[in-house]
Amino acid sequence: ATPTALMVGTGRGAQLGILIKGPEVLESTRRVDTVVLDKTGTVTTGRMTLQEVYVVQDADEKQVLRLAGALEHASEHPVARAIAVGAEMGVPPLERSREWGRVEPLPEAEGFENVPGKGVRGRVEGHEVVVGRLIDVLPAELARAREEAERDGRTAVVVGWDGVAHGVLAVSDAVKETSAEAVRSLRALGLTPVLLTGDNRVVAEAVARAVGIDEVIAEVLPEDKVDAVRRLQGEGRVVAMVGDGVNDAAALAAADLGLAMGTGTDAAIEAGDLTLVRGDLRVAADAIRLSRRTLSTIK
Ligand code: ADP
Ligand code: MG
What we know:
There is one protein chain. By secondary structure, this protein is α/β, with parallel strands linked by helices. It has two domains: 3-45 and 176-298, Rossmann fold, CATH 3.40.50.1000; 49-172, Calcium-transporting ATPase, cytoplasmic domain N (3-Layer(aba) Sandwich). 41% of the residues lie in helices and 24% in strands. The chain has helices at residues 3-16, 39-43, 61-72, 78-89, 94-100, 140-151, 179-188, 201-211, 225-234, 249-254, 266-271, 282-298, and strands spanning 18-20, 34-38, 49-55, 109-115, 119-124, 127-132, 155-161, 164-172, 192-196, 215-217, 239-243, 257-261, 274-276. The strands form two sheets. The protein has a seven-stranded mixed sheet with strand order 1-13-12-11-2-9-10, with helices on both faces. Strands 3-8-7-6-5-4 form a six-stranded antiparallel sheet. The longest helix is centred in the last third of the chain and has 17 residues, at 282-298. The protein is elongated, with a radius of gyration of 21 Å. The mean pLDDT is 90. Bound molecules: adenosine-5'-diphosphate (ADP) and magnesium ion. Residues 38, 40-42, 243-245, 248 line the site of magnesium ion.
């Protein structure tokens, strides 16, 4: 490999909005046949909003939101931010927030604990509160609400306290406008796209369908994303991974080529071989095309 050709590739990369750790990075992309895409923040915008609050009959919707919001206030997860904002400002449609009148101050949470890939727990107003995927058994009404939300591609978050589920919050995230085009470009390069997420399978499949991905690996804990990549490599596949989150860092490092979204976390950017500066997934295909071209100049 002539260093000059690789340096040219690196310079062209910068023009396209691709930051390359070192010229040698381009070498590994040649044989890539599979591109693993993280869902939240990579294929979707990651900007989530609270859409709906479901409670069992006679239960207090405001209490469900207040306790959930108080806990989620301490978490930086996109789902958590949506819930905290929804609890303070109200939930669409707007009439409902107007009915509540004003911004609701949230109570303090004590003993806050983040359970990666699952949710949060802590003490609020004297209750042991859990928010996320920490309670499996739901009363029939809430089980139906969860199913309905997930069928619509929304993330269903269960709110419970003192060991009992009290409500379900539906949070939704939008697929980026450019994602379907990005997937088409990756396919045009002969690459197989795979969606990888900690989110529920039904939600993941709804997103995959929307962007044209057939292969879905869902309900993966953050520490297991790296194993999912290794398993694909174990099948003889050469894997590029695109991700943005702290929970993607190990997988980005283990992949044959790690592409970090420039709009993502520092942990992801440090772990990746390349950074897609503007966080535009379409540039992932440009990066792979560029490296193939650079390498064919050399060979
Ligand atoms: P992804 O792989 O899509 O980026 P994560 O692995 O971070 O998602 O989380 C997986 C799932 O765990 C989320 O879709 C959500 O259902 C749940 N979850 C994680 N953190 C929280 C939280 N702070 N509050 C509520 N639910 C959460
Ligand atoms: Mg993510």
